[in-house]
Amino acid sequence: MPKRESRDTNNEPAESAKLDESNKEDHNEVSDLIESTFLLKCPPDFYEFYAFCCSVAPDSPLDALYGDTNIRLVGPFEVLHEPKKFKPDDDLTSFYRYFHDPPEVVTVLAADGENPFHVGYFRDNHADQPAFLVSSNPSETGKLTISGENIFTTVLNLLKHPKTKGGSIPVILPKLSEFAKNRRICIGSKVLIKWKSTCETLNGVGVKINLQNGIGYRPVPTTHKELVTILQTLTDTTNANTSKLDELMTLVQFANDEGDFGEGLELGLDLLAFHPAATSTSETFEKANRLNRRITCLLSTGYQLAGQPKFAQVVRRHMENRLKTRRLREVE
């Protein structure tokens, strides 16, 4: 009887190892796709949160929060959910970009409507993972509120203090807490967030400037209160005297020439966050829109000089159609 050839199974990868490797490749492809389309380097909590939503709403994970909060998973989550619908050269940075949003923000949670409450990751460099998440409602303010160091903390806070639905404790709240506990996901307070801006801006978060031997930033020579007064006067009428703002922009040009590009970023972000007093939201936006050309000039130049040309491009596209909030899918 011929001898049987023995198989050295020790040298063959286990089937589970093959699957793990395949899953890893798929994960890396989707991660690269999100980074190329949204300029977002997704942190681990992003994928963990999607896994949670799939566990509680396997047929519609993007709407897992909707019943309790009126909020949907959007933007990068939509790419993660159906990656075959998108290509690496798709530029999706203008989608879910709301009226006052700086390019540092990428929206991942949003209520329905043109200018609703939304939540996004915040990163001062698109090549780095986000430092934290912020929330905002552009119909009410131009300020950004730091909402958590990860998306679990952010959503738990939303569920505990809902902005859109009141009443009893949301059904999904204990499930989310248990999931985070089982996955050993830190659910902390926003006070734990390590973020130190170089200067404050009207959006409340500020901007971080990488100084080189002390060069890169000088402050805008006016207080926020004075600047708001200047901008309110300027936007109240189409024929307003622009000399005070013109003077500030001239000083920015001098600063740029001397390497202190941070002044232009500070002033540009102030203008972007400015929320004029008006009798209606539409009037507020109409007034603020009068600053778009100046915002484009200040921020596109500032980000270019800061070594962030893609942020400059995001600003230019945003200012071209600032009033329109683009969405990737229609919802009923």
From TrEMBL:
<comment type="similarity">
    <text>Belongs to the HPF1 family.</text>
</comment>
<dbReference type="Pfam" id="PF10228">
    <property type="entry name" value="HPF1"/>
</dbReference>
<dbReference type="InterPro" id="IPR019361">
    <property type="entry name" value="HPF1"/>
</dbReference>
<dbReference type="GO" id="GO:0005694">
    <property type="term" value="C:chromosome"/>
</dbReference>
<feature type="region of interest" description="Disordered">
    <location>
        <begin position="1"/>
        <end position="27"/>
    </location>
</feature>
<dbReference type="GO" id="GO:0006974">
    <property type="term" value="P:DNA damage response"/>
</dbReference>
<keyword id="KW-0158">Chromosome</keyword>
<protein>
    <submittedName>
        <fullName>Uncharacterized protein</fullName>
    </submittedName>
</protein>
<dbReference type="GO" id="GO:0042393">
    <property type="term" value="F:histone binding"/>
</dbReference>
<dbReference type="GO" id="GO:0005634">
    <property type="term" value="C:nucleus"/>
</dbReference>
<keyword id="KW-0539">Nucleus</keyword>
<dbReference type="GO" id="GO:0072572">
    <property type="term" value="F:poly-ADP-D-ribose binding"/>
</dbReference>
